[in-house]
Write a structure and sequence with these properties.
Number of helices: 13
Distance between the termini: 62 Å
Radius of gyration: 24 Å
Helix content: 25-40%
Protein name: ATPase AAA-type core domain-containing protein
Shape: globular
Oligomer: single chain
Number of strands: 18
GO molecular function: ATP binding; ATP hydrolysis activity
Organism: Faecalimonas umbilicata
Domain ATPase AAA-type core: 51-371
């Protein structure tokens, strides 16, 4: 479960932005699927959902993009550009796109992610921090450098890397250490220090290879399988990256097919086709021929609506999140999908009897229907606003306003109407009329 994500000097987020999934103090009501776990005697309370609002170009996608970039860097284990160029998020591939494009001098980019994870015997609150020097915007030839990297488990330092390397007291992960590591701590530490490379993560390299492959696997598995960040991803990438269908002529996943029929499809069934010639799965609609009683498959993009296709390709990710307790983060999750279908998915994440593994759903939107005090808590509703002069973005939650004073936000008030009169900010008054008036004047 994601607890907190921070970034600084990432695109429009020049000052530190903190995206928190920890319950805010003094928030009452709607206590659905609030994860309550004790780690070393301290209680953790995590939210099951969050929705992000803001005008176009405010930075809503940037906060999701920052999560996706950190995920990509951790999984490839370095801050070099990726060899794979097909990512829908260019900044995760070409890191020279990350620095703020209006900055006049270079500043390191900072990421921090804190999450809760457990195995059969242990419960962990894990924080991973990374600060990287990427130079200026579009400087692809800059000699990149990892300025800072640290791993903290249950508030105990495991390692801190600057120009040197500090290994902490690893008692908290003792059961994940090999006998060799435990018996030769000093020599292992020296070897680890010598393994540092300016552009390679210690977590995914030296720590994994020298200190604890088992604990590194636990952390990296969370990034791989439970931190599901979908940044402007098309359906083929979603299937390839997370659903992993087996290579069959037609792969019909029963649960997804049933959901598609409830959503509304024009065929008898839907399924995925993976050919030997093409690495990506493709969605097909399956029809029953009334004459010869045989099935025929037609590419869904020819027969089904865009909204239907998008829903079908997204639904396996919802299933995976619920089954594993994963965090599903989607840019414009509601695009082309009917609000009633979206409400049903949100209610699944809010259902204690179904969401037993404390899965999370995070998405940005322009649809005001979710500004509802009966659907989302105040600490689950986030806003992103961008300053017109500095072009810098800020992130804040509805719960940050408090409950008293002129700008106080009270339980059960009409969030939607207050938002549209700019009570919470993160909205822009747009009037295209002068443009058309000018066009008409030129035609006279």
């Amino acid at each position: 479960m994601l607890l907190e994500f921070k970034t600084k000097n990432y695109k429009s987020f020049v000052d530190e932005a903190c995206f928190s999934m920890i319950t805010a103090p003094k928030q009452k009501g709607l206590d659905y699927s609030i994860m309550k776990e004790k780690v070393k005697g301290k209680e953790i309370k995590g939210l099951s959902s969050s929705v992000i609002y803001g005008p176009n170009a405010a930075g809503k996608t940037n906060i999701i993009g920052a999560m996706d970039v950190l995920r990509a860097i951790v999984l490839r284990g370095n801050i070099r550009n990726a060899e794979e160029k097909s990512s829908p998020n260019p900044a995760s591939v070409a890191l020279e796109l990350i620095p703020n494009n209006s900055a006049t001098e270079s500043h390191p980019v900072y990421f921090s992610v804190e999450f809760y994870e457990e195995d059969e015997k242990n419960k962990f609150k894990i924080q991973y921090e990374l600060e990287i020097d990427l130079g200026m915007f579009l400087d692809e030839d800059y000699a990149r450098n990892i300025v800072f990297e640290s791993l903290t488990v249950n508030d105990e330092l495991i390692f801190r890397r600057t120009q040197d390397l500090e290994i902490g007291d690893m008692k908290v992960i003792k059961s994940y250490l090999s006998d060799v590591t435990e018996q030769n701590t000093e020599s292992i530490t020296e070897i680890a220090k010598n393994s540092l490379s300016r552009d390679e993560l210690f977590l995914a390299n030296g720590f994994k290879l020298i200190i604890s492959q088992k604990f590194a696997k636990l952390v990296l598995d969370w990034f791989t399988n439970k931190f599901m960040v979908i940044y402007r991803a098309d359906s083929m990438q979603l299937i390839k990256r997370f659903a992993d269908p087996k290579k069959k002529a037609i792969y019909v996943e029963k649960t997804t097919d049933e959901a598609a029929k409830l959503f509304g499809i024009n065929s008898n069934a839907v399924g995925y086709v993976v050919s030997e010639d093409e690495p990506d799965a493709k969605l097909y609609s399956v029809f029953r021929n009334s004459k010869n009683k045989k099935n025929a498959a037609i590419a869904s993009e020819i027969f089904e609506s865009y909204g239907t296709i998008r829903f079908i390709n997204m639904f396996p990710l919802v299933i995976k999140a619920i089954q594993t307790g994963g965090t599903l983060i989607v840019d414009e999750f509601d695009a082309s999908i009917h609000p009633m279908a979206l409400m049903s998915i949100i209610n699944v994440f809010h259902n204690d009897d179904v969401n037993i593994h404390h899965a999370q759903l995070i998405f940005n939107t322009h649809n005001p229907i979710f500004l509802n005090s009966n659907l989302f808590r105040r600490d689950e509703i986030k806003f992103v606003e961008r300053d017109d002069d500095s072009h810098q973005s800020v992130l804040y939650a509805l719960s940050d306003f408090g409950t008293t004073g002129d700008k106080g936000v009270r339980r059960h008030e009409d969030y939607m109407s207050k938002y549209f009169i700019s009570q919470y900010g993160a909205i822009k008054d747009i009037d295209f009329t002068p443009i058309f008036e000018e066009i008409l004047e030129r035609e006279v």
